[in-house]
Amino acid sequence: LTSPLSLYSAELAVQAVLLHLLSLGKYDARSRTFLLILASSLRVPADVVIALESETAKTLIAVSKQMSADAESKKRVDEAKFSRRWKVGLASVAGAAVIGVTGGLAAPFVAAGIGGLLGSLGLGAAVTGYLGAIAGSGAIMGALFGAYGAKMTGEMLIVPRYAAEVKDFAFLPLRNSDTRLRVTIGITGWLTNPDEVTLPWKALNGNSEVYSLRWEMEALLDLGSSLQGVLKSYAWSYIKLEIIKRTVLASLWAVIWPVSLLRAARVIDNPFSVAKHRSEKAGRVLADAIINKAQGERPVTLIGFSLGARVIYYCLQSLAERGAYGLVENVVLMGAPVPSSGGTWVAARTVVAGRMVNVYSGKDYILRFLYRTSSAQFGIAGLQPVKVSGVENFDAGNRVEGHLRYRHAAGVILKEIFGHDVDVN
């Protein structure tokens, strides 16, 4: 280019590339990362790309629903046994509906017919042609949106080989009416009541299709009750002081602990150990669900705190082991009870096409207490930066002064990280 494109022309170019990617029946994490890089190079703001994605998804779903209605109308006409000539006439009007039902690819004349419908919405001819081709293909629409979300919202998504070890696993939609070109899954790490499965993720707005992952409710409720019990029933300020002393005096890390700490340990250690073990299994089930395209051919963003972050950590490990690239776009791990060093972080980073963020707080004394017997040489990601290329570190020490604060601070933290995709009052 001898001169920069106008903003209008640049936006049209980005829209054309988006539609072309969708017409291929796949809009995975690599596709979206490429689109964002292209938009940035053309000086098209990220919020414009997000708006294009949202409007495109709405239009595709609306046209698909209209096509389904047309197909039903045609079926009723056929059942009424009108003349063959009349049937042919109807077919020319509702041809796109027939192709949508049969799952075949949209023919050019059908795309043109849908284009006329979309043209009434004020869209250009090239745009309507692309949208018509995509919406007219049951194969593309089914693959792209995961059978219109049916896979994601199934009663249970349990993979047989882990069924005996993972008791509870389901995706819960936060907004039933939203269908978007991106999927975000929030994963809670402990619970004090069942509503908290979805509550921390309410700040995630409608720019993406948001789900919360329900997993091992009983174990997480037991852990949450134990954590609350430690804070309320014991002299937590004294316990915290002892933890700080042992943090400063590293040589005393494994010495005999005061009786008050040992009492707290008896309350919390077993529930944490059980939930921690099950988080590894849940992570592998999540990886299987993503590989099996529960989300369709759309990029997935994974966000979790506490043991929810550990679920994601093991999910990424499983994806890396199986070479499942291009499925996950962004990852945010908050207060992750996982090692902060080792090759597993390098492997996990390879399956994340976009950003991978480790959110930590040096003031998280509960996490420090839970890992009091761990080897200091490996470190804990939720307490310190992860020194791996491509992993961003976000110090939340000014917002998180305890492990239980992540549930309340999640929205504010995510707003600082993602901006456009989060609404915080």
Q: If you had to describe this structure to a student in words, what would you say it looks like?
A:
This protein folds into two domains: 7-144, no CATH class; 160-418, Alpha/Beta hydrolase fold, catalytic domain (Rossmann fold), CATH 3.40.50. Helix 1 (7-23) packs parallel to helix 7, helix 3 packs across helix 5 (95-102) and helix 6 (108-119) packs across helix 7 (125-135). Helices cover 51% and strands 9% of the residues. The model is unreliable at 68-77, 82-123 and 248-254 (pLDDT under 50). The protein contains 15 helices and seven strands. The chain is elongated. It has a seven-stranded mixed β-sheet with strand order 1-3-2-4-5-6-7, with helices on both faces. By secondary structure, the chain is of the alpha/beta class.
